[in-house]
Design goal:
The complex is a heterodimer. Chain A is mostly helical. Chain A is 78% helix and 0% strand. The radius of gyration of chain B is 22 Å and the shape is globular. Chain B is built from eight helices and no strands. The chains are: A mainly alpha, B mainly alpha. The interface between A and B is large, with 37 and 39 residues.
Amino acid sequence: MILAALILILSTAMFFFYFQVTCQKVLRRQFDREYFQSIVNANRLEFPSWRKSLEEFGAPVDYPRLRMMLKCDFLALTYLLKNAANVNQRYSNEERLLILYFRWQFLSLAVRRLLKVGEKKAVLRLTSVLQYFANVVGQRVNTVRFGNLTAADYLLNL
Amino acid sequence: MDSGIVSYGFQYGCILIEAGLIVFVAQSSHRNRFVSVLLYLSCLLAAGLARSYILHRFGLHSAQYCYVYWTTDFLLVISAFILVCLFFRRACLHQEKMWPFVRLLLVFIFVLVVGISGLIFSRNYSHLFLQFIVEFNQNLYFACLVLNTLLYLLLQQIDSVDDQLGLLVCGVGIQFAGPAATLALIHLTTGEGFAQSLGSLAMRFCTLGMLLVWTYAIVPVRGRAVVTRSKAAVLAEVTAHLNI
């Protein structure tokens, strides 16, 4: 009984550990340039400024506003992921995985807030997911805008 | 939704992805790097197909299904252990001093698992075949989970640049940890119906998770986030936009 309970606890912990590591490995993907900045500016997203203030100044967290900001940015970016320059109009597998990861981290933020442990870490993880989404959207928009067609190509085809 | 339908959906989805991955890996120029993956996927596919056929032919409660299930489970556990061993070999490719020690550890763990399973089996001879296999499978499965975690820690320790191996290890971790947890839950709840159906779903869900992570790791990243549109489509859209 004790052994089974121990295996249950250890295996569950390992499952979540591997899930988190997989998501972080996906998030580590390099983009050829920072596409997220244009998406952030165009949609007035707030997460980079929150992350900067957290990273650089360690500013105290206004929790209700932070939560609202994360939620709004997440909704905006997931909408863009699905609809902006996406021919299939559906998420890819890694996007689905990261959406799940974001929700899990969002829940974990609430728990960390209650326990007052490692809130900053959770917020940084959430913003890194948002940055990844913004990069993907930016890259897609960039690809569609220029596609295989440069301005010169277009004029030549008229 | 009926959990049986979801479970079958997962099962056939897994079989399709396994077959697709096997074909992709076998055709790729880097197939020598993925011998371990190919072996494990082939075993998974063979086990899945054999179980489906026997289930369809003889039914869930038949003795044939029981024997085929546990024999294929034995095959899967052995191939999982070989997979972990080959991952260790790949991790120690540039650590020649470490490999003899790791090899010795792997052999020792295998002998230990066989010994412990044999010891428990020797107390009860009534079910000669199944008793040993069930015990051995459970023990080796948990040993693989622990070894996989050690491998992950080793990769961090040696600061491995093989990011692909890291992802493959994470996939294996998901595949081993989920079922281990659900088996323990079934044991704790003394095999209640809800726990059993949850266990069946969780195992297939974890296999699907592993396959998706492996697909992400093996299939090249290039073009994944890129929207591909034909030149004509872009031209038509721009023309329509400008009303030319």
